[in-house]
């Protein structure tokens, strides 16, 4: 319903301006049920927007809010932990603080985990930035040293070639090796042992 200082109009535009007292008065004035969001008076109403307006909202402060079909409002069953769906009977106490304890604890854990993850991410970003800066400086240092290293390499190569050119040529091996001397006695001559024996005689 569109509420104004004068009253309110049904969301589907049907009907005339209704007084504020007609809102949630347990009487369905609008075809779409938009004048009874907090009661079950328009449950099952088939009008334009009935699919969206046929729900009752439980605020459930301290716990999770939820929506109910308005047919479950004032039916004697406590569906909302704040008891708002059974206000006519007053049979449902507000238990949202107790009911929402586990939800709040889980939410608190989720927030702590998120904060821890955010802090870890921040540290990793800072560490990465420091590493990048260090690598950038090392790269600059290497680029600055490269010309000197190249000059030194050229000088050493030139010195090596110069020393190589001053070496005497290696002797060339003879094409034919001289024949090896024979140590065996002549086939027909006396042996040294026979000569010594004759002298002793």
TrEMBL record:
Bias type Basic and acidic residues, positions: 153-165
Regions of compositional bias (Low complexity) in chain numbering: 172-183
Family annotation (Pfam families): PRKCSH-like
Domain Glucosidase II beta subunit N-terminal: 8-146
GO cellular component, one term: glucosidase II complex
GO-annotated biological processes: N-glycan processing
Disordered: annotated span: 153-201
InterPro entries per record: Gtb1-like, PRKCSH_N
PANTHER family: GLUCOSIDASE 2 SUBUNIT BETA, N-LINKED OLIGOSACCHARIDE PROCESSING
Protein name in the entry: Glucosidase II beta subunit N-terminal domain-containing protein
Taxonomic source organism: Pyrodinium bahamense
